[in-house]
Amino acid sequence: MYLIIDFPANPRNCKGVVRTRTLQLAGNRRGMTDHGRRLRLKVGDADLDDIGEGRARISRHFMDALDLDEGEFLRIHGPHPILVTVLACAPEDEGLDLLRLDATQRRRAGVQIGEVVEAERHEIPMARLVRLMIVGHAGSYHLTPDDLRPHLAAQPIMHGDTVSIAPKRTSFDAQVSILGLTLAEFSGSSTQCGALLARVMETVPSGVVRVLDATEIQLERGGSDDVTEPSDGA
């Protein structure tokens, strides 16, 4: 049990949120899962910078209570449970029992601003094997497991997911000059048109998994019986 007393100035969008309270960890409550403690948090709107990024923000007090580091996963128990990447809140939210989600996340979870939901740390197992099928025509481009690994590792995946892969990325540098005077310099990268799609056909273990360096990746071509180009992973 934690006692949190916090009085930051000018809280945003936090009407009805208690700042002085006893934080009860759900380890002693009925319905507790084996994965750890649950917290009850009030849903708030996401900041502008977080909209569309698939992440949630909570107080560091609660991250510590759940043994969460930034970038790890929080399971939100709404009418439709969802997984979100968690980050620490802004300083003015510190100590609030507030969970900031954008409109897309709230719609997926079936919750609205002001509702109270339960949240807990979620451990996502590593995939030992991921089998994928290339959707459509890949042309002359030959995909390898190493081409796919960064895209698969960017977020948790499960059977049925579809991943977009740009066939080729080219780096560039450019300058804007007038009368010999350089006004601006740019650097970046671009991809070819016509990104390829890969559909997740199987994962071991099943369910939501993470792809790491040790994950074996197998490729199939759509409409072909030619399987498999295993990676060098375990």
Polypeptide structure, described:
This protein has a 6-stranded mixed β-sheet with strand order 4-6-5-8-3-7. The chain is mostly beta strands. The chain has helices spanning 60-65, 103-109, 145-153; strands at 2-5, 20-23, 38-45, 55-58, 73-77, 82-88, 98-101, 116-122, 129-135, 162-165, 169-178, 181-191, 196-204, 216-221. The chain is globular, with a radius of gyration of 22 Å. 9% of the residues lie in helices and 38% in strands. The protein is built from 3 helices and 14 strands. β5 and β6 form a beta hairpin.
Helices and strands in order:
Layout: E1 2-5, E2 20-23, E3 38-45, E4 55-58, H1 60-65, E5 73-77, E6 82-88, E7 98-101, H2 103-109, E8 116-122, E9 129-135, H3 145-153, E10 162-165, E11 169-178, E12 181-191, E13 196-204, E14 216-221
Parallel strand pairs: 3-7, 4-6, 9-14
Antiparallel strand pairs: 1-2, 3-8, 5-6, 5-8, 9-13, 10-13, 11-12
Structural class: mainly beta
- Assign a percent range to the helix content: under 10%
Taken from the alpha-carbon principal axes, the silhouette is: globular
The number of helical segments is 3
| Main sheet summary | 6 strands, mixed
Q: How do the helices and strands follow one another from N- to C-terminus?
A: EEEEHEEEHEEHEEEEE
Q: Give start-end ranges of low-pLDDT stretches.
A: 1-11, 13-35, 189-193, 223-231
Taking all Cα atoms into account, the compactness measure Rg is: 22 Å
Task: Please supply descriptive tags for the structure shown above.
single chain; about 230 residues; mainly beta; six-stranded mixed sheet; about 10% helix; about 40% strand; globular
